[in-house]
Amino acid sequence: PEDPEKYKPTLTFIGPSESTGNGLALIYQLPNGKFLIIDGGYFLSDRIYKELRELQPNATKFTIAGWFVSHPHGDHQESLEEFIKLHSTEVDIEGIYFNYHIPSYYDSFTAPEQQTEAAKEGHSVIRLQNLIDKHLSRRTKIVKPHTGQIYTFGKSASVEIISTVEDFLPTKLDNLNTSSMIVRVTVAGMSTMALGDATKNAKTIVLQMYSKHLKSDIVTLAHHGVWVDTPEMYTAVGAKVLLWPSNTESAKDFYHGKTTTYSKKAIREALNQATDVFLARGTDTVLTLPYKTVGNKQNFIDTVLNG
Questions:
Q1: What is the mean pLDDT of the chain?
Q2: Is the pTM of this model over 0.90?
Q3: Contacts of 301 (CB under 8 A, 6+ apart)
């Protein structure tokens, strides 16, 4: 039988502090009291646990129905590893979802330095599996998602797999970020397009595959707003809420085009579509779902990006 839906659904957006660089974690509290987590960057495991505790202060144990990891860079996977080591006795993790295409992954890159990076990061798969075997119950499922699959969690939550690394193979990948798994999370009727660190090559294929099917309520700015690209993706998603996983200095630099004009164009298109913007700079943002926009964009531009 389904678990009773008695909790207020929320989305908690966690990112880096002003001093710790990149990182991203999305925590969804589901109506049945379980949690979904997307990614988890550097130094965020304790903040993730703190949010679980604040959302359910009287719980004796938490249940994470699914933890989805876009790709094996540390600023997306490290917190899962640390969380398993530090909090496995206080949490049940029912499933961990990732698609890293190991072992052929290593030779799927064009440049030797990218092959070396992929091999190095690929060891995180072994490390993660060892942590699971050592610390977690055998009830924890390890799932390899594929494009087009939809996973349901209770009556009011689902995760749709929009893209995985398999969509590019056997074509050579330009870098590890291109392999990011893109997912759309829907909770309480509110959808979030989580882009991970997807590059232009990844987003171009997604645009070709899905066209108008990409419309979502919330979007994460890809690659933390650093070297962001493909403004057409943000047009297609048309999200009214933009989650920007970066610190203030980086956000200002890329908004004002101090690196590339293309980054500036993509960021401004994401902002053009949005009504509300939230920057991760050490302060966790909790949105009750379904979320009603408040129209904070202009104030954000004036006080943060132009401040």
A1: 87
A2: yes
A3: 271, 277
